[in-house]
Automatic annotation (TrEMBL):
Keywords recorded for this protein, A-Z: Membrane, Transmembrane, Transmembrane helix
Protein's UniProt name: Glycosyltransferase RgtA/B/C/D-like domain-containing protein
Organism from which the protein derives: Victivallis lenta
Transmembrane segments: 52-72, 79-97, 103-125, 132-149, 169-188, 200-220, 257-282, 294-315, 349-367
Source domain of life: Bacteria
Length: 467
């Protein structure tokens, strides 16, 4: 049987390339105080012999702590945990996107490539805890939403509500997603909405009740006008989650990103154009009564953004940051996917060239970014810092030396570890539960920033010779 290259979805190659790149070198993921806090809570809960209490999780999502507890039952290696989380999140994202393509009757390649080639979403999918799950669940939520918009069946609505509930235990802002779905049902499925309005009301009450353990600690926590302004800005900036806009400033390695980082800016207007085109197409088709399932879902995504972006920082201060892009990933992705589908149907060559160029620039950037963080052991910003693998290597060597000499004196000259010592302490606790190679006897150790890159050097002071 002869293979027909004309029918092959070439955009799948971009998505597959970005996926494979995300799976390489899991130790190059970020390890910040937020990740350390989640792992610390998981370790303490496991030591206590039960799941962590939602009220004791603070800013960390309870579900992130619970999932980390589960992984810690099998391994104390944070790099192995990061790898497993990435694999699970990527599998869920691929499954949801493939199912969405079947529901919309469009090729899966463009949507998958827009998702996985996005520098922000690619980076989030490599996070050791929390954020990676949000990306996969966000797309799973979109799948259930699409099923409801196509069939109007209660089972799909229950599936979307259950997914939003789980997401709310990762980030409380996700509890607003069903509000966007309800608005979409009211606009695009009015007959079914009127028929099921009592069920919607009961479902909303049940959803809020089930989510209350996660919500009550986050609702209006540490609210301030300045905090709301910052949170609202971050919510609006979630629009960049499909592009690389501002990525270099947030995660760039110390040595800079070179010419691929400069070329990345050329892809931003192309992706933004697809998002705007998708929303415009949905409005026009719905007004003409020509809307299909894809239009209804993309329109519901736009309504979700209109409701969720202003309310999230108001109701849940401190729950945003980079995670807004993960929570609302589907709401930005589907309008862009819809925009490309229409553009490619009317202007096939132009549409394919536009998206191919944008994806090529993004994938080239990801390749260069991966090379840079590999050689520099991380990035230079507060959002990245030294990579997980380098920090874990240093912590393992230090823990082995402490086993040989419990009175080992450690001098920390790394600002990040000196100011926020919990990141090192958590890694040392993990290392204490890991089998380590024996170390020599030393009287002291000094932790220094690497002379180049973003790594950390560990210098041991040998035990003095007795005469």
């Amino acid at each position: 049987m002869k293979f027909d290259w004309k029918k092959f979805d070439g955009f799948l190659l971009f998505a597959a390339g970005a996926t494979l790149l995300a799976l390489l070198h899991p130790g190059d993921a970020a390890w910040t105080p937020a990740e350390a806090e989640t792992v610390r809570l998981a370790l303490e809960a496991n030591a206590a012999g039960g799941p962590a209490s939602p009220g004791a999780c603070g800013a960390a999502g309870p579900a992130a702590v619970w999932l980390t507890q589960l992984f810690l039952l099998f391994t104390s290696d944070p790099v192995a945990i990061a790898s497993a989380v990435t694999v699970a999140a990527l599998f869920g994202a691929w499954a949801a996107l493939w199912r969405l393509a079947g529901i919309f009757h469009v090729p899966a390649g463009p949507g998958a490539a827009l998702c996985f080639c996005s520098p922000y979403l690619w980076f989030y999918l490599r996070m050791p805890v929390g954020t990676a799950w949000l990306v996969g669940l966000s797309l799973l939520y979109a799948m259930f939403l699409a099923l409801y918009m196509r069939e109007g069946k209660a089972g799909a609505a229950v599936g979307s509500a259950a997914t939003a509930l789980l997401m709310s235990y990762l980030n409380p802002a996700a509890i607003l997603l069903p509000a966007g779905a309800a608005a979409g049902a009211l606009v695009f499925r009015p007959a079914e909405f009127r028929r099921d309005r009592k069920n919607f009301a009961l479902g909303a009450a049940a959803l809020l009740l089930a989510a209350s353990p996660a919500l009550h600690t986050a609702l209006f926590r540490d609210f301030s006008l300045a905090g709301f302004q910052y949170g609202f800005r971050e919510a609006l900036l979630s629009a960049r989650c499909l592009t690389g806009f501002g990525f270099s400033d947030r995660f760039a390695p110390e040595t800079g990103l070179g010419w691929p980082g400069m070329l990345l800016f050329a892809s931003v207007p192309a992706v933004a154009f697809l998002v705007v085109l998708g929303v415009a197409i949905v409005i026009r088709r719905v007004r003409r009564g020509e809307g299909n399932t894809f239009d209804r879902v993309a329109g519901s995504c736009a309504l979700t953004l209109l409701i969720g972006l202003p309310l999230s920082p108001l109701l849940f201060p401190g729950a945003g940051g980079g995670e807004y892009g993960a929570v609302f990933a589907f709401a930005w992705l589907l309008p862009a996917w819809r925009g490309y589908a229409v553009l490619a149907s009317d202007y096939r060559l132009f549409g394919r060239l536009l998206l191919t160029a944008a994806l090529a620039l993004e994938l080239l950037f990801l390749l260069d970014f991966s090379r840079q963080i590999r050689s520099n052991a991380g990035g230079a910003s507060e959002s990245f810092g030294t990579s997980l693998g380098r920090q874990w290597l240093v912590a393992g060597r230090l823990a082995a030396a402490r086993r040989a000499n419990p009175d080992l004196r450690v001098e920390i000259k790394v600002d990040r570890w000196r100011d926020r010592p919990e990141t090192l302490r958590t890694l040392l606790r993990l290392a204490d539960e890991t089998e380590l190679p024996p170390a020599g006897e030393y009287v002291g150790a000094v932790l220094l920033p690497s002379r180049s890159g973003c790594g950390i050097d560990l210098i041991f002071l040998e035990k003095p010779v007795e005469h």
